[in-house]
Every structure is written in structure tokens, then in C-alpha cells.
Amino acid sequence: MPNRVCLVHYHEIGLKGKNRATFENQLVNNLRRALRGYAVADVRRVSGHLLVTDESGRVSDEMAAAIARVPGVARVSLAYLCSLSEQEYCGAAVKALSEAGEFSTFKVHARRSSTNYELHTLDIHQLVGGVLCDAFPDKKVEMHNPDMIVHVLVVQGSVYVYAASQVGVGGLPVGTAGKVVTLLSSGFDSPVATWMVGRRGAICVPVHFSGRPMTADTSEWLCQDIVNALEPAGIIGRLYVVPFGERQREISLAVPQSLRIITYRRVMFAVSERIARIEGAKALVTGESLGQVASQTLENIAAVNEVVSLPVLRPLIGSDKQEIMRRAEQIGTHEISSQAAEDCCTLFMPRRPETHARLDAVHEASSLPVSFVYQDEPREMRAHHSYLGPRKA
Ligand code: ATP
Ligand code: MG
Questions:
Q1: 391 lies in a domain?
Q2: I want to staple 27 with a disulfide (CB 3.0 to 4.6 A). Which of 93, 130, 173, 184 is the partner?
Q3: 109 shares a domain with 49
Q4: 0.90 cut: is pTM over it?
Q5: Is position 392 within any domain?
């Protein structure tokens, strides 16, 4: 039986003209990183695809699933890698079609690339099509919109044969769009926002504001779990944790109740921007969605935005909660976010927060003699497991 390999398809990268090689190389590196836990033999470019081979010669379904999660991957096909022997690749076509699931119509699609193989695509269609018609007498050949397409790709001395493919997450390889700082809570929204920006090629540096020392460190650990869940896709870097409880207490004593949340958020944004400068990140990301909660009205967004000069990306601004929850399921953060944890948001909450803040009132509140600018060096805020302390069950 011929070896089983993964053929990785990407489409958007193909549109990038001169950058194409850079994008492909980045995707090769990201796949190598994502597959560190597998016995990968090689990841390389083959005729408009990436080829992933494994030391045993038979890549597993789990490995294909791990590949499908990497941004930049449009589709993944488990293919048989055959020699130019007609008997071998026709046999592989029968096997590929029999493994492909339910279908009633099919066709063969052959492509030749940099090869001097004597058979042309039409010959291959006839040859493989004939063998498949004999092997599946109750199925029909259909040229337009068949249920299944058996692909036969001839490249130099090899023939790749596959039928079924699984859909990848799409997007662009992480690392091709620079770096962002993402404000990560343990809620549903910000992990999804992070994933979306990561899928467009950005490396995301997560920053979490915890309520410590006024709260336990549960939210910090949940954020670490979220980071771990997004790690296989290569999207996310190490977590910064900012213990924010003391500062919130200070703010809650100094500013009118109704402006507390806005003031907390202004300080969070200012600290995040400082971290962004240290990290060389070019934008901030939040999980805000218009009107979802009191702080997410246009007035309040403006009152918080004005403290930073970096662009703030809000990929969920037009999303409904249901859509966000579905996406959280897909990316594996839903269950983590379902666990309740106190973070800085639940501390010192006003009973009636301002929903349409006036900037002059906000400015007046912020000019009170309180040191709202975080004094600690953000580098020292990086989370370490020792810093987090032992996790309680
Ligand atoms: P999420 O589900 O992401 O927690 P939310 O619906 O609870 O969002 P808010 O509490 O208004 O909404 O937070 C809006 C955004 O501000 C979050 O999506 C996140 O980007 C950021 N944010 C909120 N709390 C924190 C925190 N403790 N640490 C870091 N960022 C935070
Ligand atoms: Mg929240």
C-alpha cells in the first residue's frame, strides 16, 4: 500500500504576488511548530501545495486535524503518494474513493506539473475513470457538480491521489501581519477576538488584568488555559498578567461611581499600550461588541479610546453573542470561558454605570490626584507559573 501523506491547500497566499514565497515559508514554519508533538518527517512545498510526511509513512487523522487548525490552511487532504505505476495509482484511487464517505456521483480530475510523464490529463481521466467505474458499478460519473472528485496530481516522479478533504480555518499564516497586544479576559469574547486577528496573520501578545490581591488568581489560570487552547494554532504568545485590584480600589475611592468602569478601562488601555510599545506591537485588540454591555456604547468606546494612540481593533464589534459562542466552541475556549471567575471587572462595580459618558466629565475624573498610570514595569508583570502560585483544584 502506498504511503499516506497530507497535502495542504492554501488559496489566499496564492494571491499575494511577490510575497508568496514569504507567506509559504511562514506557513511551513508554523506547521512545523504546530506538529511538534507528532513524528513529522518533512514539511515542504510541492507544486502549489505543502506536503507533510510522517516518519511511519502513514499520517494520522489527528495530524490532519491539527494541520486544519493552523491559520493559512484552506483545506487538508489525506493523499496516497504513489509511483508512476498505473496499477499503483489506480489502486490508490479506488481506495481513496472507498474511504471518502457517502456519494452517488463522482469524477476524476487530473493535473500534471513539471513532469515529462507520457500520459496526458485526458488519458489519466480515462484510465482512472475506467477503473473506478468498474470498482463502483452503482455510482455515476458526473462532470458538473459531482458529489466527489478524485484528484490525481502528477508531480515529477510521483503521483498524489486523494478524494476527501477537510476544511481548514483559512486566513493567513500567523507572523505575516505583525504583532498585536490583545486584552484577554477569561470571558467568551476576547479569546474569540484574539483568534480572529490571529487568523488574519497577527501574532497576539495577551494581557490580562486580574483583581489580585483583592480576588483569587482563578481568572489568571483560566486565561492561561485559554492561551494553551490557542497555542496549537500558533496564534498566541506568553501571557502578561497585571494585578489590578489595588489600583481599582484607588480609582473607586477617587472617581464618581458612574465613571468607575470607564476609568478602569482607560487605565487598562494605557497599560496595554505601554506593553505594546515594549513588545513592538502595532495595535490593541479587544472583544467588544457594540451595545453588548454598558461600557460598549459609542460614547464610552470613544472615552476609552482617546487615551491611546495605537489603533484598537475590535473584530467582534458587529457580532451577536450567539455567533461568538459558536466560534468559541469551534476554537476550544467555550468550556474554559463557562467557568466563573472573579477578575478585575467584577471588583468595585458601580450600581449604575454611565452608559453615555461625557468627555468633560471623564477628563475631570481622570485629573484627580491619583496615580492612575501604572508604575510597575510591565516586563515584571509577565506571568510565570511560580508567579501564579500553585493551582487549586
Ligand atoms: P469578554 O467576554 O471578552 O470578557 P465582556 O463581554 O465581558 O468581554 P467587557 O467586560 O466590557 O465585555 O470587556 C470588553 C473587553 O475588554 C474584553 O473583550 C477584553 O478585550 C477587555 N477586557 C475586559 N476585562 C479584561 C481583563 N480583566 N483583562 C484584560 N482585558 C479585559
Ligand atoms: Mg468579561
A1: no
A2: 173
A3: yes
A4: no
A5: no
